[in-house]
Amino acid sequence: MITTKQRAFLRAMGNALDPVMQIGKEGLTENVLESINLLLEARELAKFKMLKNCDADPKILANEIAKQIGAEVVQVIGNIFILYKKSTRKNFRHIELP
């Protein structure tokens, strides 16, 4: 669980990011979950975009993804959301949270 101060720090970092993955009409599938988990393992912080043809609510979908892979929802604005998950890799420059 991250604090509000840490969430604000991550939100500021996430504003400069471009969405790295789009979620389409299929919604949340096993392949999408695996891809998101691998992305977060490599980057720790990533921005995702839901396409207009996806029927799911962005807040519900972001929370469901976070719950299933053990990540934190940093921010949800419109169809874009930011997720954070601390990487388990060694020899990796981790994001230093305040």
Written overview of the protein:
The chain has 98 residues and is of the alpha+beta class. It has helices at 4-15, 30-43, 58-69, and strands spanning 21-23, 45-50, 72-77, 80-84. It has a single domain (4-84), classed as Translation Initiation Factor IF3. It is 39% helix and 20% strand. A hairpin with a 2-residue loop joins strand 3 and strand 4 (80-84). The two termini are 13 Å apart. The mean pLDDT is 92.
Blueprint of the fold:
Elements: H1 4-15, E1 21-23, H2 30-43, E2 45-50, H3 58-69, E3 72-77, E4 80-84
- Unreliable stretches (pLDDT < 50, length at least 5) are none
Which architecture per CATH?
2-Layer Sandwich
Helix proportion range: 25-40%
Strand content: 15-25%
Q: What is the overall silhouette?
A: globular
How many structural domains?
1
Which strand order do you get reading across the main beta sheet?
1-2-4-3
Short description:
This protein has 98 residues and is α+β, with helices and mostly antiparallel strands.
Keywords for this entry:
4-stranded mixed β-sheet, Translation Initiation Factor IF3, about 100 residues, 3 helices, single chain
